[in-house]
Design goal:
alpha/beta, six-stranded mixed beta sheet, globular
Amino acid sequence: MRLYLLRHGQVAQVTPRRFLGQRDVALDAHGIIQARAMGQALAQVSFDAVVCSDLERARQTARLVLAGRQLTATPTPLLREIALGDWEGLTVDEVRRQYPGEYERRGADMAGYRTPGGESFGDVQTRAVRFLHSLEPLSGDILAVAHGGFNRALLCHATGLDLSALFSIDQDYCGLNVLERTGDGWTVLGTNLRCGQATPESNSTPS
């Protein structure tokens, strides 16, 4: 089995930037272009199943990637972005004012820290492992459209990288990761691939 793990396309940027988490937003115009381009780049891959996060930015990306195919994506909350609870919609400065010291505590314990009403990246990785286990009855090529935080947590599990280093893994909008199931584990064939590198046969190095 080969898993094509895609981050959704670009969403509208707000200045100053705010924590998004599981807030439901759509792609912006550039994100739509990115998703269509990735669909063209993956046109020669015959997917046997497609799943996506049930958040709109992932669902929309999946629809655009699959345009022209007789396939639809099955949405699942397992692939959602990390829930940031009370921090969602806030800027970093607002978090620091409203929750003194908590932003620094999160940075010191990226795996275990839970925002108020939210998840830790350890929680997200647990979801990611559940998702990988759900693929066990399947075979062939699988497309999954998810989010930057979710993808990093899954890739940490697949590679054995500690969650404290998850942000060392680049995940651009519409960046593609390709994994292959080998025995009881997974081999990462490529990470954060762009459209010109969308299959590991063309380029298996990170962009």
